[in-house]
Amino acid sequence: MRVPVITGADAFSARTAPPRPTTPTKATKIAAVRTALPPHRYAQDDLTEPIGDLCLPPGADRAVLRRLHASAGVRTRHLTLPIERYSDLRDFGQCNDAWMAAGLELGEEALTGALQDAGLEPADVDLLVCASITGIGAPSLDARLAGRVGLRPDIKRLPVFGLGCVAGAAGLSRVHDYLRGHPDDTAVLLTVELCSLTLQQRDHSPANLIAGALFGDGAAALVARGSNCANGAATEPGRAGPSVVATCSRLYPDTEQLLGWDIGASGFRVVIDAGVPGIVRDHFGLHLRAFLGEHGLTIDDIETWVCHPGGPKVLSAVTDTLGLPDDALDSAWHSLATVGNMSSVSVLHILQNTWQFRRPGPGAWGLLMAMGPGFCSELVLLRW
């Protein structure tokens, strides 16, 4: 695979702008994050053989499959359906119908739970951004949820498809952009990813087998408020969440083939190129350091790392290229082990766990980051 060389005006190392103020006048406050998981929870070992039955030809050697499941860094995962029901899904239409039905249930659970945690009502929401890459619908999930949960008829909606794993971070960035211009508003980011419904039966390609070893299902909702809003319940002493200080998006040239879907009659056939960790090692650190430098910060200033768990090789590449301590991404490794890679949901799941169990002190800096199809990355600078 040809690894792109980024040079000239696009080179990350070429940025020489002086540091900007690190505390904007219009900060976005994260008021709550809530994850919802399907009820069907499995140990990784209990999924290996059933997934082999779905994906491999009869009588095929399963040694590679078993090695993939053992090395994926996943101990348990949640699935939308009981594992024995996946063989009943005969085509993309049936998979997508299951995505819509389960997505509405999980989306409602995550959305209403996050609003409750923030001390808000559905009618308080001015913007709903809804991201998913594992199913499609028109009307979209957000439109179908509006009446179910009591959102206002004049709510602004933004359904997002195609961002994949990066959508949790990129969705938060776009919510921040909106709230800077609408400081009196409240916005919700909802991500719903039912990755198991995209598994291709009778497909023993390496990418499909990796996906079958790595991905799990879930939904997450994040409530954010503009700078003029009154504080919600989540900002009471001892429960305060972080503010979004700045964001940064980056597309990596000539990398479109690395990650995404090949879409056909059978639905979404995953594309996962082995070159992804190399792109991370070669370019991600330069990009991240330049972004922090624009705000007068270095890697050593970041106390909390909220990193999407793309898989063991990607997490190791991030650790190596940033020169992080071995335990810096423990929250990502823990999320990968307990629920698998949930695409755009994962980074919000990690943020929720950080908030609940490892919340930094007031004034501490954090960085939320993810990568996805494009190939692209998104950085969100946080301050607690």
Can you give a write-up of this model?
- There is one protein chain.
- The protein has helices spanning 44-55, 63-71, 92-118, 141-149, 167-181, 206-214, 276-294, 312-322, 330-339, 345-357; strands at residues 28-36, 40-43, 76-79, 127-131, 156-160, 186-194, 217-225, 243-251, 259-264, 267-272, 302-307, 365-372, 376-383.
- It is of the alpha+beta class and 384 residues long.
- The strands form three sheets. The protein has a nine-stranded mixed β-sheet with strand order 5-4-6-7-1-8-13-12-11, with helices on both faces.
- Strand 4 (127-131), helix 4 and strand 5 form a beta-alpha-beta unit.
- The termini are far apart.
- Classify the beta-strand content into a percent band: 15-25%
- Gap from first CA to last CA: 41 Å
Structural class: alpha+beta
Q: What is the residue-mean pLDDT, rounded to a whole number? A: 89
Compute the number of helices.
Answer: 10
Largest sheet: 9 strands, mixed
| Global Rg | 20 Å
Largest beta sheet: strand ordering: 5-4-6-7-1-8-13-12-11
The helix-strand sequence is: EEHHEHEHEHEHEEEEHEHHHEE
The count of DSSP E runs of length 2 or more, i.e. the number of strands, is: 13
Q: What are the low-pLDDT stretches, counting only 5+ consecutive residues below 50?
A: 1-23
Shape: globular
